[in-house]
Amino acid sequence: MKMPKRVTIKNIAEEAELSESTVSRVLSGKGPEFKISEATQKKVAEIAERLGYYPNALSRAVRLNEPAKMVGVIVPAIHNLFYSAMVQSVEESISPFGFSILLGSSREDVEREVKLVRLMRTRIVSAMIICPVGFEVDHINEAFRDGLPTVAMDRYDEKLKCPFVGAGNEQGAYEMAKYLIGCNHRRIAAVPALNPLAITRERMDGFARAHGEAGIEIDERLLTGREYSKSEARAEANLLLSMDDPPTAIFALNNNVAMGVLEHISRTNKLKIPDDVSVVGFDDEFYMPYLSTPMTTVSQNCRDMGMIAAKILMEQWEESGTTEGKKIVLPTELKIRGSVKTMEPRAKS
Predict the structure, then answer these.
(1) Can you tell me the distance from the alpha carbon of 207 to that of 214, in angstroms, rounded to the nearest whole number?
(2) How far apart are the two ends of the chain, measured CA to CA in Å?
(3) Which of 80, 24, 91, 94 is nearest to 53 (CA)?
(4) At what angle do helices 230-241 and 255-268 cross, to 10 degrees?
(5) CB 20 within 8 Å of CB 31
(6) What is d(CA 30, CA 40) in angstroms, rounded to the nearest whole number?
(7) Angle, vertex CA 151, rays to CA 150 and CA 152, nearest 5
(8) pLDDT (tens digit per residue) in 265-324
(9) Is 49 within 8 Å of 55 (Cβ atoms)?
(10) Closest by alpha carbon to 250, among 297, 199, 306, 305?
(11) In the chain, which residue ranges form alpha helices assigned H by DSSP?
């Protein structure tokens, strides 16, 4: 199907028998400034309406050598509901200021993220919010230092110079592991415990702290997985639950992993949650309370995260405060539901 051509200033100028500069001045609201007659202004407006003209904000910004009021948002995965909710919160927060969003996905690829940041810096956007892949931040620091208002979310790196908003990963994982231990679980698996991201290290620090306080030695064979993906989570769940002495609980370190674990258990149709194995997560998605066995999880307030990031971004835009190095860590909440079984205490040897 052939798409209709966009109506341009040139089309209106030809119809009105005027110069393009005159039409442009009228449509940009500068008619009185350039002493263009009211009759001419009315004529241009009527033709523009009849032809269905809509101004291209980006083109106008480039012509006037000023950035469009657009915020570039880069996330690791658009399909991940955690990031979708975060982006929606950002959009709702910046909209009253007249800003729009240009969304990009790094797909957990640093090289792609670097290219997206470079694109954002070509004056297509006037500000940027980024959830870093997590292995390199020099390109983010460079954008911030060059004057592009920038906020990082979710994944923290000590080398970041721009402001950051995230969740208390260590404390959230600590509270979850402590809860499982309090339910007499002693063999708790964590997936993907071997992932190199900073958020994984933080969550595993909390996991280890709870075990240390309880005097429980962690079986290293229960710490598996390198990727936050459903496919790897299914494979790791299969290996864990096939062990001679399998875990009594599996701690999925994000929502994708939780779904992968649940998919494996559902497909095999051999085990029931929580009777045979307890499963808990990190990220409270809208569907988790409505699963056949509602999932116990650590809730991150992604909506507040997006809202606060947007607020800090507007502070940079308006130059109303110093934001360099600012770090805000929001508390998590343990949501206890039905996916954890209280085990019988093991007899002391």
Answers:
(1) 11
(2) 76
(3) 24
(4) 50
(5) no
(6) 12
(7) 125
(8) 999 999 999 999 999 999 999 999 999 999 999 999 999 999 999 999 998 888 755 677
(9) no
(10) 297
(11) 9-16, 20-27, 38-51, 57-63, 81-94, 110-119, 138-145, 169-182, 198-214, 230-241, 255-268, 302-318
Tally of helices (H runs) and strands (E runs) in the chain: 12, 11
Q: What digits encode the pLDDT tens for the residues 232-275?
A: 999 999 999 999 999 999 999 999 999 999 999 999 999 999 99
**Structural tokens at position 41:** 């202004």
- Considering Cα of 317, then 319, then 321, then 326, what sign does the dihedral take? positive
Write down the residue that tokens 């480039």 correspond to: 62
Instruction: Find, among 260, 245, 191, 186, the residue nearest to 216 by Cα.
Output: 186
Structure-block tokens of residue 101: 């969003």
Q: What is the DSSP string of 128-158?
A: EEE---SS--HHHHHHHHTT--EEEESS--T
- Contacts of residue 196, defined as CB under 8 A and 6 or more positions apart, other chains included, come to 135, 226
Token output for 172 = 């959230």
Residue 279: partners with Cβ closer than 8 Å, 6 or more residues away: 249, 250, 252, 258, 261, 262, 265, 273, 295, 339
* Beta-carbon count within 10 A of 50 CB: 11
309 φ, ψ (degrees, to nearest 5): -60, -40
From CA 280, how far away is CA 72, in angstroms rounded?
34
Q: Are 184 and 153 in contact (CB under 8 A)?
A: no
What's at 93, amino acid-wise?
A: S
- Cis upstream peptide for 192 (omega within 30°): yes
pTM, full prediction: 0.80
